[in-house]
Write a structure and sequence with these properties.
This protein is an all-alpha fold. The chain is about 70% helix and about 0% strand. It has helices spanning about 1-10, 15-20, 25-45, 50-60, 80-90, 95-120, 120-130, 140-155, 160-170, 185, 195-220, 225-260, 265-290, 295-300, 305-320, 325-345, 350-355; strands at about 45, 70, 75, 360. Helix 6 runs parallel beside helix 8, helix 11 runs antiparallel to helix 12 and helix 13 (about 265-290) crosses helix 15. The relative contact order is 0.12.
Length: about 375
């Protein structure tokens, strides 16, 4: 497991690149090298126990003859865009590890290049992105989201044609890409402090109330169901403490972003802020409401998650411009926050931890 400490915390020294004046070309080269390291590690690893086995099977069975007809689970037809990528890489390179290395690199660098272009502290924000999950382990949804990250550029530029092309390409791989379509128009809507905070706090309270109802009904049923619910309830006490900390952080970041939007007069920049805020709100609302037992619906939030990193980038820039002391304090809190996030990554969970502890090199 020591490898994961290295993979995650090796990002911290790169923060210095955001704090000194160096050419953008140098930053881009460093970002590419980072993404290559993570891409090769993720692509050349056998993640047995996850969806890796299923998608390796798709790669082995994919051919030009079944690009539109391949069936998985006995009834579900695989999206033709995903089949096309599998067949193309299989025809040229033959190896699944090369396909996955390319895809993982594409996922990481699509986010990294976006942050280089639109944020003042790309490596710090890239670290936030990386610590939010196991970003070097991606599958079909992650590949589709590459096109969604690219589409955010066209929302900012309000280029509807290119935006829809990106969404269509993403949807040909995974239909979660379709969820971002409303963002093109939502980004134009100005949201005020009251509306944004009421939406966030209202759904946070609703999700907590919704969870309480579920626990109460489970306990009323008695027997083994009640026993399971009691265990779940104990674990939820810990989760509530974590969610309160996260909620506090999110409200701070949200309101700093709102402050930045309200004082900026540039039309394109206001679109950028609007996109960040609405994506941020939708990510958190969906995650809060559907956090337990609705995994398929929670997937929708992934399409909006770039907005969370955009808000972090805006907040860091605002703190830096207004007070170096406030910026330093925010960086210290961010380091503590990310260290806490690391300790609660799936790597250390009972189920997913098995996957990470037992993964091994894979070159086929």
């Amino acid at each position: 497991m020591d490898i994961y400490y290295i993979l995650y915390f090796m990002l911290i020294p790169f923060w210095s690149l955001d704090l000194i004046k160096i050419p953008m070309k140098t930053k881009r080269i460093c970002m590419i090298l980072l993404c290559l390291i993570y891409g090769i590690y993720g692509g050349c690893t056998n993640w047995t126990g996850s969806d890796w086995d299923q998608f390796y099977g798709v790669f082995r069975e994919a051919s030009w003859s079944n690009i539109f007809t391949y069936i998985r689970y006995g009834t579900t037809k695989m999206e033709f865009g995903y089949m096309f990528l599998n067949i193309l890489f299989k025809s040229i390179f033959h190896l699944y590890c090369i396909f996955m290395s390319f895809m993982t690199f594409g996922w990481l660098y699509s986010n990294g290049s976006f942050l280089l272009k639109y944020t003042k502290f790309p490596f710090i924000v890239f670290s936030i992105f990386f610590f939010m999950g196991c970003q070097f382990l991606i599958f079909r949804q992650g590949i589709a989201l590459i096109f969604i990250v690219i589409s955010f550029r066209y929302i900012i530029n309000q280029d509807l044609k290119k935006f829809l092309i990106c969404v269509a390409l993403g949807a040909s791989i995974h239909n979660v890409a379709l969820a971002v379509i409303p963002l093109f128009w939502l980004s134009r809507l100005k949201v005020n402090y009251l509306t944004a905070n009421l939406l966030y706090i209202g759904f946070f309270l609703f999700s907590a109330f919704f969870a309480k109802i579920g626990l109460s009904l489970g306990l009323m049923l008695g027997g083994s169901i009640a026993d399971k619910v009691a265990i779940y309830s104990d674990s939820q006490c810990i989760e509530v403490e974590r969610s309160l900390t996260t909620t506090l952080f999110n409200l701070i970041i949200l309101n700093i972003t709102l402050f930045a939007m309200n004082k900026n007069q540039s039309h394109q920049r206001r679109i950028y802020y609007g996109l960040a805020i609405w994506s941020f709100l939708l990510t958190n609302i969906i995650s809060m409401v559907f956090q337990d037992g609705f995994n398929e619906l929670v997937r929708i939030a992934a399409g909006y998650r770039l907005g969370v990193y955009m808000c972090w980038g805006i907040s860091l820039e605002q703190a830096y411009n207004h007070s170096k002391i406030a910026f330093t304090i925010l960086i210290l809190f961010l380091f503590i926050y990310l260290a806490n996030k690391f300790n609660h990554l799936p790597i250390f969970s009972d189920y997913a931890g098995y996957i990470y502890r037992n993964c091994k090199p894979f070159y086929n």
